[in-house]
Design a protein that fits this description.
This protein has 13 helices and 17 strands. It is an alpha/beta fold. It folds into 2 domains: about 25-50 and about 295-390, Aspartate Aminotransferase, domain 1; about 60-295, Type I PLP-dependent aspartate aminotransferase-like (Major domain) (Aspartate Aminotransferase, domain 2). The longest helix is centred in the last third of the chain and has 19 residues, at about 300-315. It starts with 6 loop residues before the first helix and ends with a helix.
Length: about 400
């Protein structure tokens, strides 16, 4: 309380109003658990909207933050920095790419990718997909499908075409001599957890290259272990020209990146920039994230546990409440027969925090460090709620 007003009321009084907040105040986290101001514990299946793959308070990340904060927090890319140099090298190696532009978010990464695609191809057309989500700044918003996000801000950038996802015939028809790039997610996240079908991304890359266009893969949500491999496209036998990442790459510290294949070369000086991009604090945490993901068994566990969870949900959810279970790794979507909003509210009352992915899809993004006990407790609660409540 402050001057007889609650912290929730104070936040609502001064916030911009762009967020519909839930009736809960989170004050502490540990691993895959969160606590509210009343001391109640919740199992976190929101995972920072995909930015907390390694959970809350991970000791390796905390140690990296504390050490780097004592040395140097910020250093613009006007100057060389050893932490940045090491991180760029490690990230490029892990992604199989040659160069990287560091920024602060997924939207920024996608904005940068669109600029680079136009710069490198000297073309202006962009192809994106229906149900795709790539951000809310003007360029990224132009490639985002949801009309309620786009229409209030028209006109957006021109020459953006949206085609059905997983449809190679429509992609082939849409490509033309002015197409600079095709922008695809490996799993459509905000659009309802729709994974790429077998062979789709590989064939899309071939069509792009035949047309002289670039393939941009958006792994903002799927990257850094979420689907059971470091990057989800590694499961699809495809090498993008440009790879966009963010969210969990900084362990909760804001961070994003545009990774470039060697065939693109470097980018002309002054053509893009970011004040905070590549700051040493973010790079140090990024190194810690890579260390955990590459030197433990967390990826293998994520792949197996994701498969086990999806199979369990398919076997135990009744057809009266659910239509389909989809996903990869611990990126799971449950398509409901009704609206997801009341389900989220009921789950919260039972101690599980989850996300929507559109109006009728329940999205689960638990931290990959979640214990088996907490993971299965959450899954059993979800099954009970969906099977026994009318929504």
């Amino acid at each position: 309380m402050l001057n007889n007003i609650s912290w929730n009321e104070l936040e609502d009084l001064h916030s911009s109003g762009t967020y519909l907040k839930r009736d809960i105040q989170i004050i502490r986290g540990e691993g895959a658990l969160l606590w509210d101001d009343n001391g109640r514990r919740y199992i976190d299946c929101v995972g920072g909207q995909g930015s907390a793959n390694l959970g809350h308070g991970h000791p390796t990340i905390l140690a990296a933050i504390q050490k780097q904060a004592a040395d140097l927090i910020t250093c613009p890319e006007l100057f060389h920095n050893p932490v940045r140099a090491r991180y760029q090298a490690e990230l490029c190696k892990a992604a199989g790419m040659n160069r990287v532009f560091l920024c602060n978010s997924g939207t920024e990464a996608n904005e940068g990718a669109l600029k680079i695609a136009r710069l490198k191809t000297e073309r202006t057309g962009i192809i994106a997909t229906m149900r795709g989500f790539h951000g809310r700044t003007m360029g990224a918003l132009s490639t985002t499908w949801e009309k309620t996000y786009r229409e209030p801000f028209l006109p957006l950038i021109p020459e953006v075409t949206h085609i059905p996802y997983n449809n190679l015939d429509k992609l082939r028809d849409a490509l033309n001599p002015n197409t600079a790039a095709v922008l695809l997610e490996v799993v459509q996240g905000e659009g309802g957890i729709h994974p790429a079908q077998a062979g789709y991304l590989h064939a899309a890359a071939e069509l792009c290259h035949q047309n002289g266009s670039l393939l941009i893969i958006d792994e903002v949500q799927t990257g850094f272990g979420r689907t059971g491999t470091l990057f989800a496209h590694q499961q699809d036998d495809v090498t993008p020209d440009i790879l966009c990442v963010a969210k969990s790459m900084g362990g909760g510290i804001p961070m994003g990146a545009v990774l470039l294949h060697e065939r693109l070369g470097d980018i002309a000086p002054g053509s893009h920039g970011s004040t905070f991009g590549g700051n040493p604090l973010a790079c140090a945490t990024g190194l810690a994230v890579l260390d955990v993901l590459q030197n433990t068994d967390i990826l293998q566990r994520t792949l197996k546990r994701g498969t086990d969870v999806r199979e369990y949900l398919k076997a135990h959810l009744n057809e009266q409440s659910t239509r389909e279970v989809r996903g990869r790794g611990l990126m799971i979507g449950i398509e409901l027969r009704g609206k997801v909003a009341p389900v989220l509210k009921t789950l919260q009352s039972h101690g599980v925090l989850a996300l929507p992915a559109g109006p009728s899809v329940l999205r689960l993004l638990p931290p990959l460090v979640i214990t088996d006990e907490d993971l299965w407790q959450a899954i059993h609660i979800i099954v009970e709620v969906l099977n026994t409540h009318a929504f």
